[in-house]
């Protein structure tokens, strides 16, 4: 995970040392998620969620598909199925709408009749705090431990409250799955509020990140250094991100590309599934993270244990209780995912199988180069992953849903 921080730093340096001007359509870079959803003709609602510790999260809801929305304004009703989708590191609700109605999960689910709720975890642009500003170091004092303890439960309760349903689906991507597992360890009563959990590229065992974590977080200790120099969070000001995106990430083929090559070194290479128009948009839309998030992942990588942060990197190793999970879990992974390698996913599956909650584990699709980011940005995402995923959700519903 720490190499994402490195990526940011290097992009920053490149931005400062070079300067040129590109004329660029800023629409997809700057539009908010509700604007994007509305521009695609789908109904959109914003919901405000307050966590126990004062963070305010904006959720984005697509309560119905395009057609049913035109037919009537009454959503819900009998047999309605709601799904909460939780994003990954540096992500937001935008990750599930940005590829458009043919590809992005939100639209495909909504058109299939699902009531779609997109979560936003503390730290990204759709979140604030009741007493703290983003310039307060305390705002950034969290990791996915708090995402799991406070944010996910508050969002689940909001969905249940608004829909009146007793149970919903939870789909997590990458850190959105880490959040699920930390939630269940700390608040197992949330098992009762879910039908099933779909884990896309789950980030729980990341031994493959051990060396790089040791280097950046221990030997160099970049987190402490940059924190001391006043860099409160991992991420750049939006205008700098835009500058980088517009000037370095506009190549249209692998020979001229620096941006994707860099990202692929971290997540696995898959040029065939890359939509070149998306490179600057992916960069410009990346969200900040807390240093603690990287450090916590680093501790997990270094110890090979899915451990709490507790007293920090050198503090006690205190495993989260994966055995607290009682809802069926279905895992999808990328064969070419360098960030969360298959060996780690199999280890997670084995542990869930031992407690009897593993429903299935399989590749996200049959494309051998499918990488970590392909779960949100692949060119043929709809056909490869998301349409089959909706059918999978239907199966899970029929098998596991009881009032
Ligand atoms: C925010 O400030 C109010 C008023 O000072 C206080 O009552 C409340 O506990 C604070 N909330 C948090 C989460 O710190
Ligand atoms: C939703 O929350 C409100 C306010 O707390 C409460 O009055 C209402 O009964 C809740 N509705 C449902 C369906 O849980
Ligand atoms: C799960 O456990 C059963 C036996 O309890 C075994 O047959 C099956 O292969 C295991 N599946 C996975 C994916 O580990």
From TrEMBL:
Q: Which SUPFAM superfamilies match?
A: alpha/beta-Hydrolases
Tell me yes or no: is Glycoprotein among this UniProt entry's keywords.
Answer: yes
Q: Give one GO molecular function term.
A: hydrolase activity, acting on ester bonds
Q: Which Pfam families match?
A: Abhydro_lipase
Q: Which GO terms describe its biological process?
A: lipid catabolic process
Supply the InterPro entries for this chain. AB_hydrolase_fold, AB_hydrolase_lipase, Lipase_euk
According to the entry, every stretch annotated as the Partial AB-hydrolase lipase domain falls at 33-99
Q: Which Gene3D superfamilies match?
A: alpha/beta hydrolase
> What does the sequence similarity comment in the record state about its family?
Belongs to the AB hydrolase superfamily. Lipase family.
Protein name, per record:
Lipase
Tell me the organism. Answer: Diatraea saccharalis
């Amino acid at each position: 995970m720490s190499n994402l921080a490195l990526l940011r730093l290097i992009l920053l340096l490149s931005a400062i040392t070079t300067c040129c001007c590109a004329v660029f359509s800023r629409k997809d870079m700057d539009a908010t998620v509700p604007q994007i959803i509305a521009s695609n003709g789908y109904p959109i609602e914003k919901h405000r969620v307050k966590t126990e510790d004062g963070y305010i999260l904006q959720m984005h809801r697509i309560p119905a598909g395009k057609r049913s929305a035109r037919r009537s304004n009454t959503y819900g009703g009998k047999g309605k199925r709601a799904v909460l989708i939780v994003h990954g590191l540096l992500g937001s609700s935008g990750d599930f709408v940005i590829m458009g109605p043919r590809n992005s999960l939100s639209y495909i689910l909504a058109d299939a009749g699902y009531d779609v709720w997109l979560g936003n975890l503390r730290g990204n642009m759709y979140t604030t705090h009741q007493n703290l500003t983003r310039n307060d170091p305390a705002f950034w004092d969290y990791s996915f431990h708090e995402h799991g303890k406070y944010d996910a439960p508050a969002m689940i309760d909001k969905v249940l409250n608004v829909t009146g349903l007793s149970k919903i689906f939870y789909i997590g991507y990458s850190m959105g799955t880490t959040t699920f597992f930390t939630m269940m360890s700390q608040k197992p009563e949330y098992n009762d509020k879910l039908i099933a959990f779909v884990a896309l590229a789950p980030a729980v065992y990341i031994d493959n990140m051990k060396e790089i974590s040791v280097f950046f977080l221990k030997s160099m200790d970049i987190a402490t250094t940059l924190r001391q120099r006043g860099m409160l969070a991992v991420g750049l000001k939006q205008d700098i991100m835009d500058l980088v995106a517009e000037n370095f990430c506009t190549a249209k083929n692998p020979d001229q590309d620096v941006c994707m090559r860099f990202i692929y070194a971290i997540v696995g290479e898959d040029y065939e599934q890359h939509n070149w128009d998306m490179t600057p948009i992916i960069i410009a839309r990346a969200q900040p993270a807390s240093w603690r998030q990287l450090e916590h992942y680093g501790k997990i990588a270094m110890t090979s244990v899915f451990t709490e942060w507790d007293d920090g990197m050198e503090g006690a190793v205190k495993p989260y209780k994966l055995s607290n999970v009682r809802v069926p879990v279905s895992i999808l992974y990328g064969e070419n995912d360098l960030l969360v390698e298959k060996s780690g996913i199999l280890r997670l599956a084995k542990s869930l199988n031992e407690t009897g909650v593993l429903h299935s584990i399989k590749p996200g699709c049959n494309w051998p180069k499918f990488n970590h980011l392909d779960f949100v940005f692949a060119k043929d995402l709809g056909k490869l992953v998301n349409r089959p995923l909706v059918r999978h959700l239907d199966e899970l519903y029929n098998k596991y849903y009881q009032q």
